[in-house]
Amino acid sequence: MNASEEFETLSVRKVGNSLGTTFPQDLVKHMNVGQGDKIFAEKLPNGEVKLTPYDPHKAKVMQARREIHRQYRNAFKELADR
């Protein structure tokens, strides 16, 4: 995929009793993934599917942690100083 292309066309194939696809090497490099890595499929409200190597659940948990830490910053500091 070069800089002017916004998407790749992938073919779906039968793999055993399932369906699968292969990713072109440039897309693999762009996503920074390798064999054995997990890719998460997020269903978007508009019907599209977003593929990402980042766990959306983990991102939500980390955001909640940041908000809690910000809200209780002084309490955490006092606990750390004990």
Automatic annotation (TrEMBL):
InterPro entries: Doc_partner, SpoVT-AbrB_dom, SpoVT-AbrB_sf. Residues 13-59 form the SpoVT-AbrB domain. Keywords: DNA-binding. GO terms for molecular function: DNA binding. It holds the Pfam family MazE_antitoxin. NCBIfam families: doc_partner (TIGR02609). This is AbrB/MazE/SpoVT family DNA-binding domain-containing protein. It comes from Gloeocapsopsis crepidinum LEGE 06123. The lineage of its organism: Bacteria, Bacillati, Cyanobacteriota, Cyanophyceae, Oscillatoriophycideae.
